[in-house]
Amino acid sequence: MQTRACDVAIIGGGIIGLACAWYLRAAGRDVVVLEREQPGAGASHGNCGTITPSHAPPLPEPGVLGRALKWMLQPDAPLYIPPRFDPALWAWLLRFAAHCNRADHAHATRVRAQLLNDSSAALEALIAETGIDCAFERRGLLYVFRQPTWRERFGDLPETLAPLGIRAEAWDGRRTEEEEPALRAGVSGGIWFPDDAHLRPERLVAGLARAVRAAGVELRAGAPVTDLAVRDGRIETVVTPDARWQPREVVLAIGAWSPRLARRLGFRLPIQPGKGYSMTFDRPGLAPRRALVLKESSVCVTTWPDGFRLGSTMEFSGFDSRLNPVRLAALRRAAETHLREPGAGEPQEAWSGWRPMTPDDIPVIGRPPGLQNAVVATGHGMLGMSMSAATGLLVRDILLGEAPASRLAPLAPGRFTWAAGKG
Ligand SMILES: Cc1cc2nc3c(=O)[nH]c(=O)nc-3n(C[C@H](O)[C@H](O)[C@H](O)COP(=O)(O)OP(=O)(O)OC[C@H]3O[C@@H](n4cnc5c(N)ncnc54)[C@H](O)[C@@H]3O)c2cc1C
User: Fold this and answer.
1) How far apart are the first and last CA of the chain?
2) Domain range annotation of the chain
3) Quick check: CB of 307 below 6 Å from ligand 1?
4) How far, in Å, is the centroid of ligand 1 from the Cα of 379?
5) Is 137 buried (19+), middle (13-18) or exposed (0-12) by CB count in 10 A?
6) Which numeric CATH code is attached to 2-419?
7) Tens-digit pLDDT profile for residues 84-100
8) Which of 52, 59, 68 is nearest to 115 (CA)?
9) 355 Cβ below 6 A of ligand 1
10) Residues 109-144 pLDDT 10s
């Protein structure tokens, strides 16, 4: 086995690892990306591809626990937690519950809004600069409500988001149906976020993988990191099947799998895999004009020139890779309820992926406690595509010693230490 010295080793070739690679390379660093399978093998492949400052409010909020409890035993609900013995998941749920209060909700909304706004602009610039063909369009996103009670629940969202620089307009049912002829009649209202965007995520990842290679990054597919050795507060060696890497800096960007390597490095990350599903179809004749979120079922609909994807659902079932037909059927049913042409026949692809979920729904970006040459970049939950560019820029700034401490504090890996040993 060869021993190789290198400048920066990024572990994980999803959208987060690749965005870090792009900006670090642009800053003149020599970068190796070590990816277990191939770039985009994880959650970054079949997700909905929406770029959404609109999603600044986090999942933990007052009242969500009551809804979650009702859904818990309903296998086709937007959130599903199959009953099983899993102490790490229970500890995670307790932490999640502790964040379901107004103060934490407002804090997380602010932190996420800044990342999302920065990232949306930076990602558009990155796509323009690299010329990646990923069907990027800034056409906005529409929340659609059929039940008036759901419309009312989100009634103050435009006012909440306005001070954070996120524009949103509430529409009544008639206006929503006029603006979006693909919707079936019976809509009670909508919220329109003009600044959101969407793209085809698997093409962004493939294009970015090509772009980083062309820029001089050594991108190694089929290179799982199986071990890491720490000495005197530094990661000294990163082991893959064919090499022992000796990097100056290590970026840990392996999404939902991050707790495994973190544990080897001596710290805990309370991240759970939040499984989501998607189905991709040929584009129907009457396709939505912009990305939609069908709010009652939490299903996202994304339309590209050559395809149409239904996605979402959140299932905490560990790393169970089976495609649950009940969950896939729930996507179809939501589309049939809301859309005149909901996607016919067999899908081009039925897929599932694991989102890296933190209990406060804020990503983890920063130096982990006790390690001088490591940076964690994970925990992006439902928003990893949306936050990718800002994360890459922050990781670059951390390595260059230029990241403002105030910006990093709410993202710090060390914020979870109160329950070290449980997570
Ligand atoms: C159904 C669904 C819909 C979604 N929709 C959206 C959306 O519309 N907008 C949005 O912003 N986000 C969305 N997301 C979330 C988004 O997909 C994730 O947040 C994002 O992909 C996470 O990126 P990542 O690079 O951290 O992880 P991943 O893409 O999972 O990448 C991690 C990589 O690490 C590799 N790896 C793991 N272990 C090792 C190891 N030991 N050694 C080397 N490599 C390793 C894996 O093979 C993988 O390629 C959605 C997710 C799902 C599931």
Assistant:
1) 35
2) 2-419
3) no
4) 9
5) middle
6) 3.50.50.60
7) 889 999 999 999 999 99
8) 52
9) yes
10) 999 999 999 999 999 999 999 999 999 999 999 999
